[in-house]
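Thread amino acids onto this structure.
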């Protein structure tokens, strides 16, 4: 591969490949699509591919010149199966406009993102706010705008692009971690709602508790443990206390403080004091039937995660 040549399968190569050269059969004639961040890279490639499959593609970006080049490229491509690319110059920080743009969409590709790498202490607050608006919030508003039409016709597709930084950290990742993790959590909640037959409803991760681990396509075990017993774990690590061991013994003893003190070989008042501390960290209702089940599951998962050889 010589200097300046694109690696096969790279973003650049995909974006430049004639749509007719794709091997995977895809028929989207009569469908509408909306692709954000469509002026270049992966977004451009998605727009061209969808048009090649016959879709009428709304290409969304702030880069008017880039969109014009995309439209020209789509028009010069033979065998586009009747598809077309229509430019839509839009700043996704205009959330109301973004939601309106998605109305009537059959295929939604949330691809737009912002890249700025700085240490946290040097990161401009206004840019950070823009990142949070464009990356987690705008996709939510776009999905919100697209879903009514999809539900009405009983068909629709939503593709949410993420980043490798959602799985592997890199230096100065504040802008991506802050945006990608809430976005991934929202995606898991949407999957769980659909599996429960509650499409169109809203929910947060806390609403599902441990059921979210069973229902979601991706098991966010670490997130569940952190949400459920994170304050206790952090307190033990910071203070060198034994609240987690006390909870293990407490549950193993049938939630009896007297049997717990025998198990731990401490005074019953010590057990009571530790449980009071747990209540201050987790809330007074931590022993309610629903929450106590989640606490026990989180404890078990935390212990498994701490075993030698595990991440």
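Threaded sequence (311 positions):
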């Amino acid at each position: 591969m010589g200097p300046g040549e694109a690696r096969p399968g790279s973003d650049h190569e995909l974006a430049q490949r004639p749509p007719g050269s794709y091997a995977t059969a895809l028929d989207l004639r009569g469908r509408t699509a909306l692709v954000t961040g469509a002026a270049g890279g992966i977004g451009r490639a998605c727009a061209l591919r969808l048009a090649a499959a016959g879709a009428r593609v709304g290409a969304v970006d702030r880069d008017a010149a880039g969109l014009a080049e995309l439209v020209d490229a789509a028009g010069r491509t033979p065998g586009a199966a009747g598809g077309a690319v229509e430019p839509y110059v839009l700043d996704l920080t205009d959330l109301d406009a973004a939601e309106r743009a998605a109305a009537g969409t059959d295929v939604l590709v949330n691809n737009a993102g912002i890249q700025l790498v700085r240490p946290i202490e040097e990161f401009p607050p206004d840019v950070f706010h823009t990142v949070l608006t464009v990356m987690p919030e705008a996709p939510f508003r776009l999905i919100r705008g697209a879903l009514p039409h999809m539900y009405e016709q009983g068909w629709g597709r939503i593709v949410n692009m993420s980043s490798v930084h959602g799985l592997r950290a890199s230096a100065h990742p504040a802008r991506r971690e802050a945006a990608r993790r809430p976005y991934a959590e929202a995606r898991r909640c949407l999957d769980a709602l659909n599996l429960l037959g509650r499409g169109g409803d809203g929910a947060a991760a806390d609403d599902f508790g441990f059921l979210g681990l069973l229902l979601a396509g991706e098991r966010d075990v670490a997130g569940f443990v952190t949400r459920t017993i994170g304050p206790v774990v952090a307190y033990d690590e910071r203070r060198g206390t034994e609240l987690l061991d006390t909870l293990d013994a407490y549950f193993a003893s049938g939630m009896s403080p007297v049997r717990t003190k025998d198990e731990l070989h401490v005074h019953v008042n010590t057990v009571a004091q530790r449980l009071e501390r747990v209540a201050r960290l987790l809330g007074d209702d931590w022993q309610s039937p629903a929450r106590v089940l989640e606490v026990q599951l989180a404890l078990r998962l935390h212990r498994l995660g701490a075993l030698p050889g595990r991440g």
